[in-house]
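Can't attach files on this board, so I'm pasting raw text. These are the components:
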Amino acid sequence: MGLLAPWFLAGLFALAIPVFVHLLRRHITTPRVVSSLMFFERGVQSSTRHRRLRYLLLFLLRSLLILLLVLAFVNPFFRRTGRDKDALLLVVIDNSFSMHSGSRFADAKRLALQLVAQKPHSQQAQIMALGGQPQTLTQPTTDEVQLKNAVDDLQIGDEHASFAELAQSVHILAQSWTGPIHLHLFSDLQRTAMPDNFADAVLPANVHLILHPIGTSGRQSNWTIVNVSAPSEITDPSAPHTSRVTAVLAGYSTADSDKTVTLTINGNIRSTQTIKVPANGRLPIVFAPLDFGYGFSRCEIRVQGDDALSTDNTYRFAVRRSDPRKILFVHSPRDQRSSLYFDAALRAATHGFFLLQSVSSEQVASITPDRFAFVILSDAIALPPLFERALEQFISRGGNVFIALGLEAENHPKIPLWSGSLQRNTNFNPSAPAAIGQVDFTYPALEQTKPGPDKGGWGEVKILYAASVNPAGARIAAKLNDGTPLLLEKSIGQGRLLLLATGLDNLTNDIPLHPVFISFVDNAVRYLSGAGESSGARTVDSLLQLRPSAETASDKGGVEIIDPDGHRPLSLTQARITPVFRLTHAGFYQIHFANGRDAVMGVNPDPRESDLTPISPEIQSLWAGSGSSDLTSQEEFASANAARYQATTLWWYVMLAAFVVAVAETLLSSRYLGIQREEL
Amino acid sequence: MQRFLDPVVLATISSLELIARTVIDGFVAGLHRSPDFGFSQEFAEYRPYTQGDDLRHVDWNLFARTERCYLKRYEGETNSHLTILLDASNSMHYGFRAPTKADYARYLAASLFYLAIHNQRDAAGIIVFDDDVRDYVPPSTRTGQFYRLLAALERAEPRARTDIFKPLTQLHALLHRRGIIGVISDFYEDPVAVINALEQFRFKGNDVILFHILDPHELQPVLNCPSILRDIETREEIEVIPQFVDTTYKSRIQTHIEQLRARSLSAGMEYRLITTNQPLDQALREYLSLRKAGV
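---
Top answer:
Structure tokens for the assembled complex are below.
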């Protein structure tokens, strides 16, 4: 129930008119002068009571008439969902990292609570959080207490908001909710939250989007460290090409200024630099050489000074210093070239962090693979049984093995560790070698952020020999143009088995002769040795693979994770079976893997959250589908919220009642006049 | 000429002398058409001269023939004294329409003075009172008496409260000769007390006439709704309902009038109720009837 024109309530002062006419005017009159009161008597009580009784009904009718007329002008209404009776009120609150700025998050919660309080009691509502992956906090319910508790309990996160993911979640919700959905988004509407492809953010047709921009008009200038290039692991701190940290300082909506950047290692300030940054510019800052102690070093690069979002002024990363790790390279007695190519590429890629120990397959029986970062079997199909069993145990405990199948595979159809025998061998005509047809660049060993048109360099590779293996249970990362799997991965126990269907020498292919071989070796070595997983920096909301797959979970060993707050986010059961863990908080995570390896990771907010520039009004209007969704002020918010529900006005009913009362008043007053005429 | 006796017309004339002259001229003109009333300057009798009489009234022709000194007297010529007791209290200030009771009373008094002095050659005097004797002009026939009386009437603006008994007590000491005493008042007092006070003059041989001046709205007040009434003298206020005015008030004031009339007659006094919308000839006829009755 409400009043559309409450200012007309001032018309209630008109009620004083009948009160004055019927009750007051009889008493408060200008005294009439008489010569003497000798023959008069006081008669106030009886006259007043008589008058009041006589005209009480008339007085009530007149007062009621005025009251109804005033109410008609005030235009009372009651909120009714009307045709939107089955509309779902979907309240989405942005709790992403950028909401740390100022009082954005508190404002968003306050406005959301206000919206929940104003909704009709019968309307169902649902609360969602936008930070990271959209999270449903409540199911559709009419329970306002539950809704308010959900809003109150919502905490701000360090994750990145994505309107594309919101649209995807709403699409899923719209499939289960047949009625209309009123989506109220309380967010700072960062430009970076909008996907590059606007179609990804388009909402279903039955969803009406109402935007509530929060803090879009305040201070927007912000400084942050958008990127840090630092070794995750280091063996020689004195080496200038490895022991350096390069940070990129960026300013958003900033003016020319001198900024001071500080590097701290384990809480101790090691270096401070002041640079002049142009407006909205970004500049690299190099800290070198650095002295790291053995073990994990927790490093922070901090931008001094205050800005709109002070929580992103620190970038965290971890560096592990250790001695060079060894890789066991087992090759066939006839293969002498592959180790040379691989070692050269390894030195070029890892700068001496790994040492390649090349051993013939005939001499490997007494070697224990546990001492090595991982094991490479280069065309070493025939292995001593003892070593083969040791490899099986090694891989089941979390060790990784890389197998390259060369010409030796033609003589030994059974591939060690790989279930299933060799299906066939294909020797291509040197004049018509096979090429690589498909490459999965998301696979860690082949990872390239922006591969070129030549398949990231793989398109020029010529394959002269390739073994065809059973791909069952394996992930195919690359294929030849004839469909033969070239690179496959299979999880065995806690470990991984990576299989290249061709050799590492220049007899079966020309891969070692191409630059892509170095990047492949680099990625493969880091992937298989787990070097990149034990230290470095991550972005909030990224996934950390705790074990190769869920099927490999066992009760023998669990994962232990300590988050930046010192809590263990995983229960004991989860620690045994969870294959993937989402890094949701900024800070340093400490992880102890099931295979016994330790890791320390610096987790930082997504740098896109540091750009506080909101979406342009045109895009907002386009997204909302109408121009009525930009609610920047309280009044606009309240009015828009009121308009959200169908206001059923009572004007006609009030006027009808006023008409009836007017007729009754006329009849009654005419009756009094008739009596007076008879008296005359 | 009758319209010149209308009080509403007289209220537009500021000069009391002109009012009195207009009234009397009109009044006398009316008398000529009346067979019942009249007076003349015809001879009435001789009276032996006594010491102190005015020598201008001696009939010298008769003295020449008889060597006896007689005074010649005419019909209508009296040596009566007209004394007007004029109530000038605040209650006389009331008037629903012009003229007010006070104005009407002054018109009446002026007319009586003019009639008495110029037509009857009586001595006329005035006593203006409210709660005390405010002004006193002794009766006289001297030249200029009429203007002195008019001046006293001009000064008789209503004020103060009415207390008729105190000035009446003082009047006993002022009036030495018998004559006609006209009391012009609204008589908002106890009729018994008023008549008792005036009886003293009657006992001394005076003819007393009570001119009871009331506004028509005092006799027939109109009250449509409960109203607050304020006493013009005491400033007291009370709320009165129309039903009371329509019934009880009217009966009360009629009783008051009847008591005044009855007790006046029983005491040998004349009583005339005059409303301010009545022509003045009613009062003048009353005076002349008394004058003709034997004074």
